Amino acid sequence: WEGVQCNSTTQHVIELDLVGLVESNQSPWVFNVTMLQPFRRLMSLDLSLNNIGGLVEKDGSARLSTLKNLQSFTLDYNYFESAHISLGALISLKKLSLRGCRLNESTFTIQENWIKLKALDLSGNEFRSLNFQELKNPWDVKELHLSENRFDNSILQELAHMTQLQVLDLSWNDSINNSNIQDFLNLTELQILDLTGNNFYGSIQGFCKLKNILELRLLGNQFTGQIPLCLSNCSSLQLLDLAGNHFEGQFSLSFFANFTNLRYLDLSWNQLVVQTEDSLWHPSFQLQHLGLGGCNLNKPDGSVPEFLRLQHNLSEIDLSDNHLVGSFPTWLITNNPHLGVLKLQNNSFTGYLQLPSYTWQSLVILDISANKFRGKLPNNIGYVFPQLIILTVAKNHFEGSVPNSIAHMSQLLTLDLSNNNFSGELPTQLLSNCTNLGILKLNDNHLQGEIVPEHMNLTSLNWLDVSNNSYGGTIKDALLRSSSLEYLDMSKNKVTGKLPNFIGNFQLLGDISLSSNDLQGHIPIEICELRLSHLDLSDNNFTGPIPPCSNFFSLQYLHLHRNNLIGPITNVLSRCS
């Protein structure tokens, strides 16, 4: 049976997977655990995603003695918001997971009977504090996940006694703002430490004492100073993420030459000046992720790191914002058969875009925006990269027509061709086949044709910017197929006709820019159905009165100048806050 596992010798049921058995819109309900009484040898139970709001025995008590033999209990993403959950009777528990259950210290407490507990996951709740001293053997806990709560500095003192911890996740608790990392230094058995998205500050030199550390995530804090040389003591590191802090100074990547196990390295978005060519060195590692965005890389030459020619397992490369020069490094793709993300934006690459000569199924994100590429976008780009979900080539010098093959990227979510010199009409199949497309940016080119062609079928579109082109024609009802539009900019084109009444059907639309066209007639009263923050209809030929909209509570920008409108404007502004 699916979701049921039995002991191969005794045939007793020992594992039950009952994930997601109820509809997601069902109101929270109380689960009677007595129904599990026949499964006396049950050791593992997963009740995640069932909208459970409480656990009781058949007599209404919350003792849960029926489950006293459970060793692993998973209740992720249920709703214990208003009910106290008591699990003290589960004396055999080794692993407990209550991720995303809306718990806090008044609805859940640590139980002293959990003498065998090894792993606890309370991520995604609303805890501000927890008393781990209730545990008889707090030092026996090996794995603790407390991410996405509201913990403050006091949690650090609670953890200091859990000296056998091997895995600690405290990420995304932004009320933690401590410069004293001494509390972690007692946790000498730590192998995985995640402090992402907090407000720790000061030096990280103390972390060098964690000799067993394999993964160290410090992304998005306020750490300062230089990357300490003593990190060489942690040569077993497999993952090091220091991105988004305030580290500074010169740093040579040859520092990691002998980190044989290193698979993930991210130094992006600090104030570092990173060199890779300052000495002859050969990496002993094979990276899967490399983040060097905004690292002032290889100044003043701006060369792409040569050591990357020896890397063959990369799935993600970020070399953005580094003023790198040269031609498009096609070899980064061909060297790495599993490459999924390549970010080269905001550099100074030049020349034509040279693609691999064969289909590359793994690449899903390609961003080469804000460089100096020129010429035509290769005609076969859609066949070479058919699995792309994000393609961004904005702010270059590409010219000519948009390749028909882009329509072959059927998974495309974002297409940004803005700020180039593309001309001609957009391929018919792109507008009819790419039904997953959510963001389409074509602004600041020389494109032409119908502003809304009849064949347009972008059913997932929420952002459309075709401004500053040479589009003409009228706004046809084919636009209604994009019912989820939130942003619409058709300004600085040659659009004619009326603003259609169906504009009021776009209930999510918050930003409309139609300025500098040749629209005429009355502004439709249906526009009052929208909750707009930005409305620009300037430089057209609209006539008649301004609609007396009374629900423009969120309106921040209103531009109606250079039209032929008449009547008072006070009605439209009377409810604007």
From TrEMBL:
Keywords: Cell membrane, Glycoprotein, Leucine-rich repeat, Membrane, Repeat, Signal
Organism: Opuntia streptacantha (Prickly pear cactus)
Pfam families referenced in this protein's UniProt entry, alphabetically: LRR_1, LRR_6
Main location: membrane
Organism domain of life: Eukaryota
Recorded family membership: Belongs to the RLP family.
Full protein name: Uncharacterized protein
InterPro entries per the UniProt record, alphabetical: Leu-rich_rpt, Leu-rich_rpt_typical-subtyp, LRR_dom_sf, RLP_Defense_Trigger
Residues of the signal peptide: none
Lineage of origin: Eukaryota, Viridiplantae, Streptophyta, Embryophyta, Tracheophyta
Keyword Cell membrane: yes
GO cellular component, one term: endomembrane system
Subcellular location: Cell membrane
